[in-house]
Amino acid sequence: MADGIYEVIRSYDGHLFQLQQHIDRLNYGAKALQFCQNSFEALKDVAEKLIDINDLKQGAATVYLQITRGVANRSHKYPSPETPLTVYAIPKPLIINNSEQEKGISAITVTDQRWERCDIKSIGLLLNTMAHQQAINANAKESIFIRNNFLTEGSHTNVLMAKNNTIITPPVTHHILNGITRKVVLDICDHLKIGICQRAIHENELFSADELMVVGTTVEITPVVLLNNQTIGNGFPGRLTRQLQKSFGELTIKD
User: CA 27, 30, 36, 42: dihedral to nearest 10 degrees?
Assistant: First the structure.
């Protein structure tokens, strides 16, 4: 039934980046799905302890948190409110592909056929998985969803474009996930006095972008230099992308 929510939290040398924001989004999803509990502050200590006892305090790692409605007979209705939720958490080291952030990646566009509540970080990721596999089959690294001719997000990322020294990205709606990294990058833009515009982006605009990038917990800020085999900008990561990458890297150390 995909009746569950999850979060992936990035650890930098033992520090869980934006931990509270991830827990807040978990709480948001639990409330939207009407779970019997919608506050999971205690999982902050769980995540930190998992990093500690698994000797992951050096280098990159992630903690995966998953909460489902609990064990009950199969039915198309919610089980009794007394049914305890099932909570699962696992840490693991993260292998970083620095060349993708340094040189950029290729991506493809795909039709967004997902449900209307993509703002909930649901474990129902079948269409995301199928879209990502389309990218792999096309020798690309990411699929970018297009809904009714307009950009929504990537199969596991948010998407930002740069045009005329302004960062442009779709506004937060039910059709995209309110990405933690997305918000951090926009905050960096604000701090650096880089122009920000949150508006609908027609798919044709992507090909005339000065720069294009995907952002997320594991990919951080990764430039897209090729889309549907068409070169973006000059085919290399751009100035704003480099500036944001530098500031983001500094923030992961300071935060």
Answer: -30
List, in sequence order, every beta strand (DSSP E) within the chain. 4-12, 15-16, 60-68, 86-93, 105-111, 142-147, 150-154, 158-163, 166-169, 195-198, 211-216, 220-227, 230-231
> Residue 30 corresponds to which tokens in the numbers above?
């639990």
How far is it, in rounded angstroms, from Cα 162 to Cα 213? Answer: 8
Selected catalytic residue, list 49, 92, 121, 141 = 121
H or E, element range at 204: helix 203-206
* C-beta of residue 110 within 8 angstroms of C-beta of residue 144: yes
Does residue 47 carry a pLDDT above 90? yes
The CATH number given to 4-93 is 3.30.470.10
> Does the annotation mark 163 as catalytic?
no
The CATH number of the structural domain formed by 98-254 is 3.20.10.10
Q: How far apart are CA 19 and CA 11, in angstroms?
A: 9
pLDDT of residue 254: 67
Of 251, 249, 224, whose CA–CA distance to 238 is shortest? 224
Tell me the pTM: 0.95
Domain residues of the chain, as ranges?
4-93, 98-254
- Is the distance from CB of 245 to CB of 5 less than 8 angstroms? no
pLDDT digits (tens, 9 = 90+) for 195-212: 999 999 999 999 999 999
Measured CA to CA, the distance from residue 146 to residue 111 in angstroms comes to: 5
User: What pLDDT does residue 255 have?
Assistant: 65
Do 225 and 235 meet the contact criterion of CB atoms below 8 Å apart? Answer: yes
